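Bumping with the actual sequence this time:
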Amino acid sequence: MKLTKEEIKYIENYLIKNEVKFWDVRLELLDHIVSAIEDKIDNEGISFNEALLDVHHGFGNRIHNGYTYDLDFEKALHIDNKGFKKFTLKAQKEMGRQHRKRFWKTFPKYLMSFRFFIEILIVIGVVYNVHQQSPKTSAIIALIVCFMPEIFKVFFGVFDRYNRRSLKMQMAVNLSSLYVCMSYLSMSIFNSYYEDAANKPYVYLTVTFVCLFPFARHGLTTYKQIFKENQKEYKLMCS
């Protein structure tokens, strides 16, 4: 038995009330729940409400604090959402794993691309020329270059509502954050170690930031790919 549009909409609202805030996680859950309810109705001959409550409990959402299964149907569906929180956490870990896998799988090809070759030549050329005049300024420029890919993400829908409400995009934003953290760590170690030095060897920082640039830059490339895929999926969902 196929569920009606009204029943499917009811399930979607039920997920929203249970604080499944990411639309892509909600869409995945909706597919699972609709299929499971249809199977239960066909195979067990139970009502929609009974099937939904069974599926709700099957996800690990349990009635607790002295409440029984004789509780009002609506209250029973919304009294516990721990199962959905665990599902979201599992989806978050899986999406993070998939993003990292994509990043490293495409990284060698990106390093061999003509576009990257031109970009890294420009970066090295600018930093080297500035270093001849001011090593400290060259380190600052190298740091800015390393951060630029993160800044450019703003122009690819970071503030769009459907992106903010997408777990996939949240994980994509964090994809290259490790290399940003490494930049901060490098600066902290450098400033701590050479705090009292009269002439600080800024060349170390400059080389570090330039070496981190390919990773941060490819993080932007991967983010843009995920963004386009997510945008297409969202449009299909709304159509």
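The tokens above came from a reply further down the thread. The chain has a mean pLDDT of 88.
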